[in-house]
Design brief:
Helices cover 83% and strands 2% of the residues. By secondary structure, it is mainly alpha-helical. 48% of the residues are buried. It has helices spanning 2-30, 35-46, 49-60, 64-89, 96-116, 124-146, 149-160, 169-203, 208-220, 222-233, 237-262, 271-293, 300-321, 327-361, and strands at 92-93, 121-122, 267-268, 297-298. The mean pLDDT is 78. The protein is globular and about 55 Å long. It has one domain: A middle domain of Talin 1 (Up-down Bundle). The strands form two sheets. It has a two-stranded antiparallel ribbon with strand order 1-4. The protein has a two-stranded antiparallel ribbon with strand order 2-3. The chain has 14 helices and four strands.
Length: 362
């Protein structure tokens, strides 16, 4: 029965993602909102509904490890797995706005979670600050996009044809219906998937933090998987990348903020999360900047590296949870060999890019 819910949830999630991308893209861009901001707000926030429900319910039930692990694990999963897999399918173009503002914001917020959680708890006050930050970020993103009216018209004409054709009331109603149906299917599919996945994980006897970092994080991020891959295949690459960055920002400001605000005593931050998982989330966010900025493209090579790191991270969690004897050795290899080589590779690419830019100007 658990396996049935698992696979049925995957099928429903895929259908919901397709409907959401179809329904949200055209009317939002037609109203003067760029495809990038559609990904950062409408699509990203809509597909965060499963994450929000799971984390808030976990916080209210006193399952702090599950609520926090869900957010931290999802942010790691979004960048390493979703962007990695999407870039392997087709290289992803990165908008300059992401590099100038949204990625630095994602890095800053990730570091803020580490700083505020250093005392072992994220209280209601921190949750309120995060929620107010989400309101400000959303308002800024929409207002900023409306100021780029000339650019919007060009993008709309390029992606959807005649920009002068005004959508009719019936067409807008149809698109709104697709968005609502897509969101319903996403939430329903994620709920079925989580039911099956969590039951399987609990039967294996792993901790709530491990469940949150792996099964729950991946399960609630499946809408992002489906939505970003579908958007990439359909050529809407701004939505594919913006969806991931916007989701990570929403996870911290919205999901973690509301969970900390609604829980009676806030959310407890485990020592393991402070020592390992949250720093990894910060590191993954920082790694986005040089990769995104180098040529404004996430190449297939970058995608392969991201995906490989997620597999290694998951394997490390599983080995640690099972207390396997090879776990410490594996962690040492990752820490002292693989990670430094990757940092060196990214740094070399960044230097080459800066030199090429300097040569082009001269």
């Amino acid at each position: 029965m658990s396996l049935l819910f698992l696979f049925l949830g995957l099928a429903v999630l895929t259908c919901g993602a397709e409907l959401l991308v179809r329904g949200a893209s055209r009317p939002a861009v037609g109203m003067g909102i760029t495809p990038l901001v559609v990904g950062l707000t409408v699509v990203a926030y809509g597909t965060r509904a499963p994450e929000l429900v799971v984390s808030v319910q976990s916080a209210l039930a006193g399952q702090s490890d599950l609520a926090l692990g869900n957010v931290v694990g999802s942010n790691i999963f979004n960048v390493l797995f979703i962007l990695g897999l999407s870039a392997l399918i087709v290289p992803l173009k990165v908008d300059q706005k992401l590099i100038r503002f949204d990625v630095p914001l994602m890095i800053g917020l990730s570091g803020l979670v580490l700083a505020l959680g250093w005392n072992g708890r994220l209280g209601p006050l921190e949750g309120l600050v995060f929620l107010l930050g989400l309101l400000g970020y959303t308002a800024w993103a929409i207002i900023e996009s409306r100021r780029e009216s000339a650019r919007v018209e060009r993008e709309y004409a390029q992606e959807f044809g005649n920009s002068q054709a005004k959508p009719t009331w019936s067409a807008n109603a149809l698109q709104a219906g697709l968005v609502l149906l897509g969101l319903v299917l996403l939430v329903l599919g994620a709920r079925w998937f989580l039911f099956g996945a969590v039951e399987i994980a609990r039967n294996l006897g792993v901790s709530e933090l491990v469940i949150g970092l792996t099964i729950v994080a991946a399960g609630t991020s499946l809408p992002e998987v489906a939505t970003s891959i579908v958007a990439a295949i359909r050529g809407e690459r701004d939505i594919a990348v913006g969806n991931v960055v916007g989701s990570n920002i929403f996870n911290i400001l919205g999901v973690l903020g509301l969970s900390a605000l609604t829980a009676k005593d806030g959310i407890g931050v485990a020592a393991t999360a402070l020592a390992v998982d949250i720093p990894i989330m910060v590191g993954v966010a920082i790694a986005c900047f040089p990769v995104f900025a180098t040529g404004n493209v996430i190449s297939r090579w970058n995608g392969a590296v991201f995906l490989g790191y997620y597999i290694a991270y998951t394997l490390a969690i599983v080995l640690s949870a099972l207390q396997h004897r090879s776990g410490p050795t594996f962690n040492q290899v990752m820490l002292w060999f693989v990670i430094p080589l990757t940092v060196l590779g990214i740094g070399t690419s960044w230097v080459r890019y800066l030199r090429a830019q300097k040569s082009a100007k001269s």
